[in-house]
Specification:
The protein is α/β, with parallel strands linked by helices. It has 13 helices and eleven strands.
């Protein structure tokens, strides 16, 4: 097969192959193992030298489907509890197919009024969902890390402006180090964003009053009082090991008192705002200067999807716009051009799956899903507490359950090695997926059940498999 022009008359045929495979694959997710290592040898069928003569679209897609449906990690299923991964609701998955079908260059209004209008609508809907002020500006990003880059770029512009420097045009040379303060709950993606921005990954200072990472407000207050220049405070809503959160309202008080910028990392914790049971955790977010969240976590839209909201919308264009290229519109041409409001120039229409799922299930549907996951997580916590050989290590406040295997008679110094081996066995087994982490110096499990398919039966299965594998170690 040569030039794809020869397939112009059959361009939809490969899509039909995917559509025919979708039903059986999605129906199988309920009973499939999350990962079947016996299928790993199929990955070799993806390899080999670049062909001189291609095999054509149908054969290529058939091969990809054959390998992928067998050897993929089936993270769209109900028992993938590793990392913090949602799934893709039926509406979101179909919306993502539409995004691929239409293949919109979504950076500029002139290249896709559809994508620009859809992004504007979903950003407004998300602000309504999270109870953020309507005047906040926003932009969709590929991830929470990119959302951090966006929000902290605006913070950096604001901070440099206090020093009389336009950092967009002049850079950081000659400026002092930007002070960034947070609690011990801060995520590595915040540090990565600071690294990307040239502020330094390890310049962030943490203020924790104990080994859980809870913020030491008095110490942070004292340090802020000693600074002779503005600072950035990072508040964390939903920590990855326990789901714990900073007291955002109190950090907003500190920011207000010291004239600091408040940035909130709400990668998955922002969804606490949807339920009256957890909305108190998000209290104060509306006072932030910038807020980040992820879509491919608790919103259950496909990868890649993040959101960045900024109180002063004009800072987005100052941090990312005004390119001065003659073929591009000016930043103030009256039509929104999202590639001038964030770090990406070339952008896909990632608003479409978000629009589809928000339109399909609405505020109430997403609240119900969040509350079901809260119930599932609480149920898992109760199962752990009732099991004589499992130890719950933190209260279940949100959607993360932190525990370890602790059988009777095993000394403390052997527990880390035992849990690490059990974690490896669980991933190798593949029926249920949940990795290990480190919390308060201990090796722990921290499953996060936020897939739209997940029910209490799925976390019961996790406990059954873990204890079965532990007995065999």
């Amino acid at each position: 097969m040569s030039d794809p022009l020869h397939e112009r008359g059959s361009a939809a045929d490969p899509l039909a192959l995917v559509a025919r495979a979708a039903g059986p694959y999605l129906d199988s997710l309920q009973d499939r193992p999350v990962h079947d290592r016996a299928a790993d040898p199929l990955l070799d069928d993806l390899d080999g030298p670049l062909p001189d003569v291609g095999e054509g679209a149908a054969a290529s897609v058939e091969r990809l489907l054959r390998v992928g449906t067998a050897a993929a990690t089936h993270s769209s299923g109900p028992r993938f509890f590793h990392l913090v991964v949602g799934g893709a609701t039926p509406a979101a998955m179909a919306g993502d197919w539409v995004a691929s079908l239409l293949d919109q260059p979504a950076g500029l209004w002139v290249s896709s009024p559809l994508a620009a209008r859809a992004e504007t609508v979903v950003l407004r809907w998300l602000k309504e969902l999270f109870a953020l002020p309507a005047e906040f500006g926003g932009v969709l990003t590929p991830s929470a890390t990119f959302a951090h880059v966006t929000g902290l770029s605006c913070a950096r512009y604001w901070w440099a402006e206090q020093h009389g420097v336009d950092v967009t045009s002049q850079g950081l040379a000659g400026l002092p180090r930007m002070p960034v303060l947070s609690s011990g709950l801060v995520h590595v993606s915040t540090r990565k964003a600071l690294q990307i921005l040239g502020c330094g990954r390890d310049t962030l200072r943490t203020f924790a009053r104990d080994d859980t990472g809870r913020v030491d407000l008095d110490s942070m207050d004292a340090v802020l009082g000693l600074l002779d220049a503005p600072a950035v405070i990072v508040a964390n809503l939903g920590e990855v090991n326990t789901g714990g959160s900073d007291p955002i309202d109190e950090l907003a008080d500190l920011a207000e008192r010291h004239g600091a910028w408040l940035h909130v990392d709400g990668a998955f914790g922002m969804f606490a705002a949807l339920s009256p049971r957890t909305a108190h955790l998000a209290r104060g977010v509306e006072r932030a200067d910038s807020v980040t969240a992820d879509g491919h976590k608790w919103l259950n839209v496909p990868y890649e999807s993040g959101f960045s909201f900024v109180r002063r919308p004009e800072l987005l264009s100052r941090a990312f716009g005004a390119w001065g290229a003659s073929y591009l519109p000016d930043a103030d041409d009256g039509r929104v051009n999202y590639n001038m409001l964030g770090p990406e120039s070339s952008r896909r229409a990632r608003a479409l799956p978000i629009w589809a799922t928000l339109r399909a299930y609405g505020r109430e549907g997403h609240r119900e899903m969040v509350e079901r996951h809260l119930d599932v997580s609480a149920h898992l916590g109760a199962l752990v507490e009732d099991a004589p050989d499992l130890e719950l290590l933190a209260p279940v406040e949100l959607c993360v359950v932190c525990f370890r295997y602790r059988p009777e008679g095993v000394p403390e110094e052997r527990l880390d090695e035992l849990n690490a081996r059990l974690g490896e066995a669980l991933l190798a087994d593949g029926r249920v997926y949940a990795g290990t982490s480190r919390y308060r110096g201990m090796t722990v499990f921290r499953p996060v059940p936020i897939n739209w398919r997940t029910t209490k039966a799925d976390v019961e299965r996790l406990v059954e498999v873990l204890r079965e594998l532990a007995a065999a170690l």
